[in-house]
């Protein structure tokens, strides 16, 4: 009885859209005004102590076990919670301190390797089911609304390389090179000598195979090592979806290493998930099941580390809506192979990834998190760059 009273009070102010909730005793409550398109069913009671400390983890695990079922869009439900000012998702006072102390520890090299491999070494086959043919697992860039996901991912790579104003014959390092699309494109289309570094054996082997098939062994080099062990300098550095993995305590070192690996007046394009507000920077569900060791810094944190590293900002571009759209495409693709995923990996795993993709789309849609591209120079800002931003989108405008 007490648990139902607590949940009733919690859910009464949790969403900014009407939501129907059926409890374990079979009774149904309707919260908000109007007709609800979302029906949440609690098949079992929740652990109230865990709800008080780590609500997203308790709710996510209950959903994974089918203790909670959702009829309707998970994305819309989570967005409605983020958009409600006094929702338990936006009032983090009860668990922010615990999160920061528990989930933001520093990463030594072995821990970083384990964290990366736990996520990316699930197997290439899993990601191939719902990513596009470029195997790009980061925010796409919709230069045109009617682009396919693959076209938008390729456009993102060109957007990055065009922003760098990269010149033929120069050397480029991609920190966290994934399945190799950026370094291969940079070599083929921009005549750059490229180097990729990753801790994922699955990504490393996949990229090596692609490079051999394309006959690019002399121009594209892939390293299976920690980026902190690199001993060369480069004209350009790219890093896409990487700084979220290094941990709060290692962000300063990450940007210092970017500066160390750049030649004087060299440029870097750093693309990653950040936020335009103050908050915990971690989510216990994502930390435990998706990205162990992850931490999302806000813009102020990143800019502080950039300045402390002696780098200067050339350009800053938020791409929040682009990542929302990317995630919506991934979700649609994932739903097409959902039953297949259940057979191969089990229902809890399948439900976990469905929840993760839709909740992230909601988080971007609500502005809870953002993704940004930081164009930075090891030298005076704008050195050797055109005087205005038109060069960055010239490719888009010519189509």
Automatic annotation (TrEMBL):
<dbReference type="InterPro" id="IPR057206">
    <property type="entry name" value="DUF7884"/>
</dbReference>
<keyword id="KW-0949">S-adenosyl-L-methionine</keyword>
<dbReference type="GO" id="GO:0032259">
    <property type="term" value="P:methylation"/>
</dbReference>
<keyword id="KW-0489">Methyltransferase</keyword>
<dbReference type="InterPro" id="IPR003333">
    <property type="entry name" value="CMAS"/>
</dbReference>
<keyword id="KW-0808">Transferase</keyword>
<feature type="domain" description="DUF7884">
    <location>
        <begin position="7"/>
        <end position="92"/>
    </location>
</feature>
<protein>
    <submittedName>
        <fullName>Class I SAM-dependent methyltransferase</fullName>
        <ecNumber>2.1.1.-</ecNumber>
    </submittedName>
</protein>
<dbReference type="InterPro" id="IPR029063">
    <property type="entry name" value="SAM-dependent_MTases_sf"/>
</dbReference>
<comment type="similarity">
    <text>Belongs to the CFA/CMAS family.</text>
</comment>
<dbReference type="Pfam" id="PF02353">
    <property type="entry name" value="CMAS"/>
</dbReference>
<dbReference type="Pfam" id="PF25371">
    <property type="entry name" value="DUF7884"/>
</dbReference>
<dbReference type="GO" id="GO:0008168">
    <property type="term" value="F:methyltransferase activity"/>
</dbReference>
<keyword id="KW-0443">Lipid metabolism</keyword>
<dbReference type="InterPro" id="IPR050723">
    <property type="entry name" value="CFA/CMAS"/>
</dbReference>
């Amino acid at each position: 009885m007490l648990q139902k009273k607590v949940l009733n009070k919690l859910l009464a102010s949790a969403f900014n859209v009407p939501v129907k909730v059926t409890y374990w005793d079979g009774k149904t409550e309707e919260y908000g005004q109007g007709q609800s398109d979302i029906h949440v069913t609690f098949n079992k009671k929740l652990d109230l102590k865990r709800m008080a400390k780590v609500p997203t983890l308790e709710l996510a695990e209950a959903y994974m076990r089918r203790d909670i079922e959702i009829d309707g869009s998970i994305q819309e439900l989570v967005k409605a919670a983020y958009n409600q000012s006094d929702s338990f998702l936006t009032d983090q006072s009860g668990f922010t301190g615990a999160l920061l102390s528990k989930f933001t520890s520093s990463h030594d090299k072995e821990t970083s390797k384990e964290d990366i491999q736990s996520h990316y070494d699930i197997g290439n086959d899993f990601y191939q089911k719902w990513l596009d043919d470029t195997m790009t697992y980061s925010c796409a860039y919709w230069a045109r609304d009617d682009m396919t996901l693959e076209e938008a991912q390729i456009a993102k790579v060109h957007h990055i390389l065009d922003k760098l104003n990269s010149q033929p014959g120069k050397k480029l390092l991609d920190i966290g090179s994934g399945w190799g699309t950026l370094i291969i494109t940079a070599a083929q289309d921009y005549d750059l000598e490229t180097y990729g570094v990753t801790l994922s054996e699955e990504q490393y082997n996949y990229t090596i195979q692609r490079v051999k098939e394309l006959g690019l062994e002399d121009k594209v080099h892939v390293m299976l090592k920690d980026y902190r062990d690199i001993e060369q300098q480069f004209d350009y550095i790219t890093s896409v979806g990487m700084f979220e993995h290094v941990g709060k305590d290692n962000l300063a070192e990450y940007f210092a290493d970017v500066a160390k690996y750049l030649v004087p007046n060299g440029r870097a394009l750093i693309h990653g998930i950040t936020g335009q507000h103050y908050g915990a920077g971690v989510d216990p569900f994502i930390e435990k099941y998706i990205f162990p060791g992850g931490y999302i810094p806000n813009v102020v944190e990143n800019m502080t580390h950039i300045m402390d590293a002696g780098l200067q900002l050339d350009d800053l571009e938020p791409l929040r809506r682009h990542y929302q759209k990317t995630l919506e495409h991934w979700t649609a693709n994932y739903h097409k192979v959902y039953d297949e995923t259940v057979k191969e990996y089990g229902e809890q795993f399948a439900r976990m990834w469905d929840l993760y993709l839709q909740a992230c789309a909601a988080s971007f849609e609500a502005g809870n998190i953002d993704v940004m591209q930081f164009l930075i120079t090891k030298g005076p800002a704008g050195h050797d760059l055109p005087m205005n931003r038109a060069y960055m989108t010239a490719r888009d405008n010519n189509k």
